[in-house]
Amino acid sequence: MIRFESLNKVWPDGTHAIRDVSLEVPRGQFCVILGPSGAGKSTLLRAVNGLMQPSSGRVVIDGTEFNARTQSVLRRRVAMVHQHFNLTNRMSVAANVLAGLLPMVSTARAMSGWFRPEHREKACELLAQVGLSPAHLKRRAGELSGGQQQRVGIARAFMLDPEVVLADEPVASLDPKISSDILRLIRDAARERNATVLCSLHQVELAREFGDRIVGMRDGQIVFDGSPEAFTDEC
Ligand code: ADP
Ligand code: ADP
């Protein structure tokens, strides 16, 4: 379970990006954070992996508070899927998927694209699950289509069997026609492993289709929290 307790974030320029957000997300839930650009979704997600230092309040994962002392351990349980994929384009798909094992393998090992047999098996299983063949391992990530790159991003995210997956607008850079396919892959991979997903989106239809729950955000505040059925466009 992830618990946000009275979280606030004021950026150095005075922007109050998160305003007193309290939220509990149970294990295994696909929780959509829905809101327009600038609502604070990305800032909120980044509090769960230490990329954002809150101004006040706490994030607690399974009873352990996220802080400077605990973050190196907690971070291994939290993976991220990015809007712009964040792959190293000139490196192979293999090296990019292996990067999901950092810090369990050295950076040099990940960069080499050299797999231990058990890691190779896992990478191939994950690639198959996201619809890519082992032949893709040798391709440069930058040569793939956007949809294929995000599939690699998803495979990378699941390499360490994360308990939490932060998906920050995972389909915003993709052709809308494949948005559902990509969200379905994240949902199914998470479901199979009972991982919790915090997924930020700005599209109401996708939130309704994929969320077990919708948390609506606007101007840094939660303005709706409930089931997709209860969500109306006025929220
Ligand atoms: P969303 O993900 O919903 O688009 P963000 O969390 O990215 O929203 O941004 C929330 C607010 O915080 C916006 O006003 C944005 O400009 C601001 N913001 C985000 N990151 C920073 C930063 N590093 N420094 C200053 N302001 C930021
Ligand atoms: P992404 O689309 O990959 O989530 P963003 O465009 O939201 O990236 O933000 C990219 C980076 O710029 C982030 O580190 C974010 O914190 C920072 N950022 C966003 N808005 C602002 C802002 N108004 N001022 C300064 N930095 C910002």
Short synopsis of the structure:
With 235 residues, the chain is an alpha/beta fold.
Note the total helix count. Answer: 8
- Distinct bound molecules: adenosine-5'-diphosphate
Strand percentage lies at 25-35%
Number of strands: 10
Report the sheet with the most strands, covering strand number, pairing sense and barrel closure.
6 strands, mixed
What is the multimeric organization of the chains shown?
single chain
The helix fraction, in percent, is 25-40%
Distance between the termini: 26 Å
Helix/strand structural class = alpha/beta
Strand order of the largest sheet: 6-7-8-3-9-10
**Rg over CA atoms:** 17 Å
Shape: globular
Mean pLDDT figure:
94
What are the secondary-structure elements, in order, as H or E? Answer: EEEHEEHEHHHHEHEHEE
Low-confidence stretches: none
Could you characterize what this model shows?
This protein has 235 residues and is of the alpha/beta class. Helix content is 29%, strand content 25%. The strands form two sheets. It has a six-stranded mixed β-sheet. It has a four-stranded antiparallel β-sheet with strand order 2-1-4-5, with no helix packed on it. α5 packs across α6 and α6 runs parallel beside α7. The longest helix is centred in the last third of the chain and has 14 residues, at 179-192. The chain is globular. The chain binds adenosine-5'-diphosphate (ADP) (2 copies).
